[in-house]
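DM from R.C. (forwarded with permission)

"hey, sorry to bug you on a friday — could you get me a structure for this? deadline for the figure draft is monday and I only need the backbone to look sensible"
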Amino acid sequence: MMDHQPILSSSDALLSGEREALVRREGITRRPDARPGDGQRPRVAGRFLSVGDDKLYVRGVTYGTFMPSVAGDDGYDPTRVDEDFARMVASGINAIRVYEVPPVWLLDAALRHGLWVSVDVPWEEHVAFLETDEMPESIIRRTGERVRSVAGHPAVLAFAVGNEIPSAIVRWHGRERIGDHIERLIDGARGADPDALVTYVNYPTTEYLRIRSVDFDSWNVYLEDTADFERYVARLQNLSPERPVVIAELGADSRRHGEAAQATLIEAEVRAAFAAGSAGTFVFAWTDEWARGGTQVVDWDFGITTRDRQSKPALVSLGAAYRDVPFPTATAWPAISVVLCSYNGAKVIGQCLDGLARQDYPDYEVIVIDDGSTDETAKIAGTYDVTLVSTPNQGLSAARNEGLALARGEIVAYIDDDAWPDRDWLRYLAWVYVTTDHVGVGGPNLPPAGDGRTARLVALAPGGPLHVLRTDTEAEHIPGCNSSFRTDRLRAIGGYDASFRTAGDDVDVCWRLQERGWTIGFAPGAMVWHHRRGTVRGYARQQRGYGFAEALLEQKWPGRFSPLGHVTWPGQLYGSGSGSGPFASTSVYGGTWGSAPYQSVYKRSSHWAAAPLMPEWWLAIGGLLAIGVLGVSWPTLWLAWAIAAVMGIASLTIAGVIALDRLDDVGREGGTAADAALLTWLVLRQSLARLRGRSAGGLVPWRRRRVTPPIAPRTHRLDDWSEEWHALEARLRAVEGRLVEQRLAVRRGGPTDRWDLEARTGTFASARLLGTVEEHGHGRQMSRWRAWPRFARVPIVGAIALAFLGSMAMISGASLAAGVLIALAAVVAIRALLDASEALSAITAAAGPQLADR
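My reply, with the result:
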């Protein structure tokens, strides 16, 4: 690497008196920044960038390209560069983006002024560059050489190895080949400068082009409506759930929109980008002076200064926005009570309390609930400025309620003792409350680096603390390790359900809040680091607890679970360990002839491919192994062992595919064969541990709820005369309410279904209801109801198969096998009839004379 020393010039005078004059004239003050030149280079810290221990918010503008004054000139004038850089710094700008590898003297000037430089490494992106073998190799070689020419310079923020490869070129070559080429460019850049950050600058038309090994994601986004911009930036945050997002270009043309409109739009969009959790922005451009392809551009005026560097209103508005990063300084922040519950957390609680002590927030308190710890948890917590309460061990929900009772803030935020927050955690949470009506807000929880190999792989395994989003800004579920609520609303629902001692409480509280018609928001910038389990045994114990919590949730919320006992999330899961599943199919929405302005990739998981890791699959294997024992009576049944072996191999194969996919997704870190083997075992172990926990809680396929005496499993009709008028929808809601009160699994018919409600008391069968109302004048009505049974396919097919095998065994003279198989078939058939009978009884009772007593 080169030893870069700054070159001094006479224009350094701008760093003193003239800079202060600029500050007074522009009316702008700048926040202290992590500056280049202190021996440390930028690095990724979760959703943000940092230099050492200091967070680096990139507040940038683009610079150039300029017309060369003579052939071979780079277009930069040292005097003008110094003047521009001084004004930038005075205006609160701390970074520039250049579209070519700059001369070293320009980097030295940036270093002297305290500016970071994001360096684009240009190449022939506009042509079909993969048509020959020679061109991509030449591009990769030249990229490495150009990076090497400035490698190690302390002013370099990052290298961008591509910028908006045209969608037509990506469509021509295919996103896989383009992605592989960019990955090779990234490897080449890192080979030339191992300590540098590397990115690729994408744009909405090739949104589907996802590059795994970039350090952070960069996007050029031009939208002339601030609301549209806010929505799209929120989407970008969720496309990059564990990496920083930098808006590499945004801006507006003052020639077409006017200087005032340009200023308003730029300020609004910069503020929106940072409020959404972006790590930085670059406004296009510093000046209207701009050349492209050796030609001066004269019909666009995107600069925040004119060609002769006269200030536009956008310069002042941008400076005001950058001064306030990440949020306006005049914000009236609500008081927050942070509740930290711990049981024997002495090994980790200090790190969490350190993070809470460093919060950059004006009005917060920390309440520590020591839930009956037998280690030094209370002693460690007592050394911090917190409210410490020690109680007998009651479980997590009860401890959280203790903290809720003591909370004085308008907002109560929860964090686990094995997590610690980013310094701006509370501001990002609070901002959502300030700007929306959400009653709860959560954020991402990321696995920290350095926890060891097993913890790194556990973070990639399924079953982690994930958030579920309905939209890019509204959540269905937020994990308890990073959650917050309006204190009065959480108290209004009675706080947490104390029956959930170790897990499931966060899901339950979210559902209860949403049941009131309230909503929960999501703040991508409200980041916490969260340790994953460091041993396979610890991971299995955690997953067993999660399985038991699922059983408790299913008993309380049966309508939110499928007949087999799997929660049916209406939203999308996000976070590490939330892959799309094995053999997922993908498609790109490109529009007619690839003309769509926003082209996304859609993934559809294969339910059949996921089946070998479901708990029921293992139960089926166990059943086949048991049936195979009957082979001593009828050898044909030894085939059951062969089928069980094939099913076991299928489980192992699917687990291996998931492991390889997730190791491939981590890109730069990758994984060894040993990592793949351990992750495969973790995937299998998770499935088995969940089965054990679910079974202990009663969440098994043969579970049932008997609430009324059974009736004949046939179609039933009911007529109900009423002298009081009610809409059919109101009558159906009354029926639904009665069934829900009995904690039955209830489902509404869809827009194409010819039934209104379905009730389930067991997993082998259910009952469906269809209603209508006859109008007889003067408010009098006749309600007519029809209810009929619906049998699940799998149990019926299973019973038929068992009966068939039993008959064959009987013909073969294997009386023991025949008797057992026929008895099993009878048990399944009788159970299906009972489930249908009880569901019919419940739904007809609920549809009887109603509304009169409600």
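R.C.: lifesaver. Residues 466 and 575 are 6 Å apart (CA to CA).
me: no worries. Residues 815-846 form the longest helix (32 residues).
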